[in-house]
Amino acid sequence: MANYDVKEINRQLKCDCEKYIMECESTYRRQLDTIVTEINSEKGRALVMLAGPSSSGKTTTAKLISEKLTALGRNTVVVSLDDFYLEQDIPRTFEDGTVDYETVEALDIGLISTCLHRLINSGESIMPHFCFKSKKRSFGEKVTLPGDGIVIVEGLHALNPAITGPLSDEKMKKYYVSVSSRITDGDRVLFSKRDLRFVRRLIRDFYHRNSEVEYTYYLWKGVRMGEDRYLFPFSSLADRKIDSVHPYEVALFKETAINLLDRVSEDSVYYENAKQLKDKLNRFGYVERELMPVDSLLGEFIG
User: Fold this and answer.
1) Which of 169, 174, 240, 299 has the fewest CB atoms within 10 Å around its CB?
2) Do the beta carbons of residue 296 and residue 197 sit within 8 Å?
3) Which domain holds residue 130?
């Protein structure tokens, strides 16, 4: 875990903004290069399990790993565990009896095992797709994977033994991606790791999932509880961890995040937190969205 000081971030942005952005992007990409080299050393079909908390950048990380492997001549299939949600009988593990979409038991574990076994052993499987609006699952076309192919599985529970246990460890690589660094102001933490992920999610949910700011706040408590219960206990099982923080990201998200936080009314239970978050965001300079590389991980949230 690294700490990045707000004063130094602002100094770098003021000195040479574009250069600093590329340095931040390169720090993340170098981690992926190391992982791709490890994965590519495996011969024949292989399985890559990629887990991480909400808004860690799992989707983009899986996509970029896939693209890098493809450039090396390997065939890849990216599988999202979100497509294996149950249509009904979701466990109600919270004290108030609400549905717990964070638990691994909300997924069709048997179907996951069947599909992955088929891809690895026979090189083909019909894969599901889950629609979050209708809460219904459908099945698409048959997916094929040549003999040298690599299956990349991404999701909150990708390291959970309930998922990995039925699968062979022989050619399985396990990775964990998260925001593993903080932003400080001297000795004081200005943005914790979870703060940074919340800002990412706030923007993504509003623009990509039509979710109001206060609803994202409402969901965040359950998300945090789910991570504590179902993810963090298994993070140590990863072969390697990826830090997805881009130190310039707060300056990139600043204007958009503040505009969204302004939507929180004064009588809201989240008003004080929103006000404090805006004060912190205002400590940063501003980066125009056009300066963000088109293939940046940050585009998953603000692109």
Assistant:
1) 169
2) no
3) 3-302
Residues 53-63 as b/e (b if ≥16 CB within 10 A, e otherwise) read bbbbbbbbbbb
The whole-angstrom distance between residue 205's C-alpha and the CA centroid of its chain comes to 13
Contact 53, 245 (CB under 8 A): no
* Count of domains forming the chain: 1
State the pTM of this model: 0.92
Own/partner pairs, 163-166, CB within 8 angstroms, 24+ separation: 163/49, 163/81, 163/104, 163/107, 163/109, 163/112, 163/113, 164/49, 164/237, 166/113, 166/117
The CA distance from 15 to 2, in Å, is: 22
For residues 222 and 102, is the Cβ–Cβ distance under 8 A? yes
Taking only the tens place, the pLDDT of each residue in 263-286 is 999 999 999 999 999 999 999 999
Tokens 């990349």 belong to 152
Distant-in-sequence, close-in-space partners of 152: CB < 8 Å, separation ≥ 6: 48, 50, 62, 65, 66, 76, 77, 78, 79
